[in-house]
Amino acid sequence: MVADGEAVTLLQAARLALGWTQGRLLHELMTVANALGEPIQEPASLKVSISKWENGKRQVGRRYRRLFRAVYRMTDAELGFAAGAARPGASVVFAESIPAGVDAAATLWEADDARPSTSPFDGRAYATPALRWLLGSPERPDHPQGRPIGTPHIAAVRQMTAAMRAIDNEFGGGYARASVVRYLHHEVTPLLRDGRYDARLGADLFSAAAEMTQLAGWMTYDVGYHGLAQEYLVHALRLAMAAGDRPLGAEILAAMSHQSTYLRQPGQGVDLARAAARTATRAGVSALVAEAYLLEAHAHATAGSERACTVMLGRAEHTLDRADRRADPAFLGYFGPAYLSAKFGHCFHELGRPRQAERFARASLDMDESYVRGKAFNLALLAAAHAGQGDVEQACTIGGDVLDLAVELRSARAVGYINGLRRQLRPYGSAPAVTEFEHRAMAAQT
Hints:
Elements: H1 10-18, H2 22-35, H3 43-54, H4 62-72, H5 98-114, H6 127-135, E1 147-148, H7 151-171, H8 173-194, E2 195-196, H9 199-222, H10 226-243, H11 246-262, H12 266-283, H13 286-302, H14 306-322, H15 337-350, H16 354-364, H17 372-388, H18 392-406, H19 412-425, H20 432-444
Parallel strand pairs: 1-2
Helix pairs in contact: 2-3, 2-4, 5-8, 5-10, 6-12, 7-8, 7-9, 8-9, 9-10, 9-11, 10-11, 11-12, 11-13, 12-13, 13-14, 13-15, 15-16, 15-17, 16-17, 17-18, 17-19, 18-19, 18-20, 19-20
């Protein structure tokens, strides 16, 4: 399925991040309107308008902008009402020093814990951080003053990250994102700012903080807050550099590439994937190198460069076959044959080769069932491959399975994939199976 980042607007992302249905949003809008002494007279009409506003098909008028601001406690710019009011990438700064990096990350966590920002994605904002990472020199993350901290403090951060990562994989980024942000603000900030640690312990602490920050960025990307996700990933990279953690740095660069390609900026996706590959090679983690090659292949496919895509797919497969997985970092547990097959399938789908996409999409379903979101994505890819071959009945049947999984997910990307399949099926709109799937999809989003 074509990953269309534009499929989820800022207005829709604000609702999905809270786990609300459109019905819940309608109730909240009516409650606020009543409190303001301006009751809504036609709820059915407003329900239709909500769908059109969220899909970008109709502009939100002044009265409802005020209601949305009150319901979400966000500004016009954060909700996508004031084009150009937010400055893309304004807070995406790769700090020059370790103390400045800690302050920048802590400021982000505090602000996000109070109210998330939905600033737009800026494809240029990743270039400088990636370059500074590649050219950076070794650092000493020590802090000789403050209350003493030890390995149990760091172990707690890592255990919390592992638990939240499992929840993210099963339920989507919107389910526990706020909990991760709150933990970073209230628990990790005091460790970094007020703890006493030497360079060795500091490296472990900064590595743990960087991994949790990367997870927060990934969750934020999943719920559709793309500018905010950029800030998290850049700060995660800065913390990883302070820790001297090359494998984690490669994984963060890979996440940046993933997001850029998803948002249809494949040139940036290629550059970041290459930076990830170079970092992973220096770290000696072959599986990470293979992942970076896959991400570069996906970016080439998104740009329509079939030959370059094919070359990188071959390199990825060869590298993974030869990799010694015993030394893999724990965060790379998701990367295996199913992930490889899914990426192959996405590449062939982007290149307009649905038969090959179907073969790899089927193989991708031989996966760990705890990755519920990933399974929904892989099923959506399989449904899209069938739709691409004109097999509408099968596409709708599998699409129904996607809806069954997605109903429990808080993931803007899941909504985006479903909407992509709906668009792909529109030429067959008169078919009963398509009509039924469309009704189910609309009901699931309301």
